[in-house]
## 1
Amino acid sequence: MVKILDSTLREGEQTPGVYFDVHIKLAIADMLDALGIDIIEAGHPLVTPEIQHSVEEIAKRGLKAKIGAHARSLKLDVDMALSCGVQFLGIFYCVSDERLSDQDKKLHQAVDQIAQVISYARAQKPDLLIRYTPEDAVRSPFQNVLDAATAAVTAGADIISIADTTGFMIPGTPNNLYDYVKRLKEELGKKNCYPQIAVHCHNDRGLALANALDGFRGGAEIIDTAVLGLGERAGIVDLATLLVILTQDFKMKNGWDLTKLPEVYQLVSKYSRISIPVNYPITGENAFTHCAGVHTQAAIRNPLHYQSVQPEVVGRKSKISLDHMSGIAAVKYSLDQIGESNLEKDFVLRVLERVKDVGQRGRTVDLPELKYIVRYLREHSPC
Ligand SMILES: [Zn+2]
């Protein structure tokens, strides 16, 4: 069963200018927990005392989700994370040749450090869920990643996270996560190492979601997400879109309550001050709105003609938009909704004309405005 690790509170705060106050962080954590998220990455406690305090507050909340902290491969970070009372610890260390040479380190020195820190963390808290992330794994030499991952698992790591830190992978090319996850699992298996595999996909090429699904098909058991896909640069996998696809198309069930998605998206959008694009899948204002005349005519009969995702899955409804693209069917349907069902055909055509005029000025007509249009036209009959 695939698990979701949501990193809105950690990766999401790496979006330039985004910071959630502690009381907002608690509200977001509660909502993610109610949604059924398995692991909530609450922050990197070493970054500021206030983040440390937030991680502590979330960890002692008694949520069903495991609460996690981020840590460099240093005892200092591990101690600080564990002092917050977390149940999950994510330790990262890049083992690419370039980064090792920048730090004047040999691979074996890095691997020793990773293993020592993980052994230390394991000794401090035997039931801790430990993840090791070789940052930029997919652009690092595979053997380096394999050596580091093997040492990490042997030292006590439960999860190896394949980080596509720069959004480098592309499904269907030699650089794809499906093959990468399969190969890593096979190679680790040869060493009697069977960690859970996570995928952390950045969206630099707009392919974070596609890559995450590719990794999932290749055998990944955990997928990292953020509300609104927040994160460094172009962000990471969007939580809502992933959950809908896993539920609807891959028939995965893990106790997720997708009807809670709009609420958490509104909250995160408000306090990150990043608006949800109107055309964003699942949570965007227009995601289930039909506009063009042909579309609305068919969608009024059966929304499935122009929808492959059911809005009810996330507690939303289909909508009809009235503007310059509207036809008679959309106007009649909307007039029904405001209790104006028995109007003469000529009058309905005048309403349609008025709606198109408004639409050409770049606005849509909502139901309250439609009432004003009807009243105006009644009061101004053509001579
Ligand atoms: Zn990241």
## 2
Amino acid sequence: MSDATPHAPSEPTLTELADRVWVVRHPWWDVNVTAVEGERGLLLVDTHTSDASFGEVLDVVRRATRAPLVAVVNTHAHLDHVLGNTAARAAGQDVVVTAHEAADYAGHLPRSVAAYAGERAEEARAAVVSPPDHTFSSVSAVDLGDRVVELVHPGRGHTDGDLVARVEDADVLVAGDLVEESGHPVWGADSWPMEWPLSLDLALELVGPATVVVPGHGTPVDRDFVFEQRSAIGVVAETIRDLATRGVPVSEALAAGHWPYPAEHLADAVRRGYEHLPRSQKRLPLI
Ligand SMILES: [Zn+2]
């Protein structure tokens, strides 16, 4: 999820990124859904937040292709990326939904749906959580006939179960919320702030000089953008490590750190980072 959408479109937009690869950018959350067409049919990466918003996305995809929907990939189990799964199954033909094995459809997701009180809350809360049919540990692939979409879990970061989807023949990488363009990266209650930089390093190994990277939210970016965001996410992790090593208590860490993002958005990052640091890297506060 992103909580800053300064230049979100006012209605869903369709952008062709490469041969038979499109991204739909939807104003609700300013979230992206990527469509990849192959001989066997259509794959959608993420499904938006409700039956209705999935339908709005699909309507826009249908301006470009009538290929039958056969596969869905969820980049991670946050409500703005997966609550359209049920509608996607109904719209397609034996749709196979794939996600990472640690993506938390049973815990964090239903809790966050129940607590959600923002835009279009009624329809989001009415959506039925539809977990994946297929999960994987490190790498997987969706065969679309004449092209293959590779799925890689680069490690934990924005959530436990992030994946990136790579369309190698088109030089496109769909990064989910490991990368954000229209807002800053979001560290929530299920984030892994100390591991996120290393996960992005692995994802960057799949990114070349001409690769189009689709962020979870906002406009597509390039390798330089991802490098810069990785370094800022690394500064957050190193600042947490430094504060903990110096014995700054977690309750004072937000105010004591010099952060690359507004401190008020980093409360979960700091709390989680302190939890995840090994005991040997934390000092008791000096009294
Ligand atoms: Zn997210």
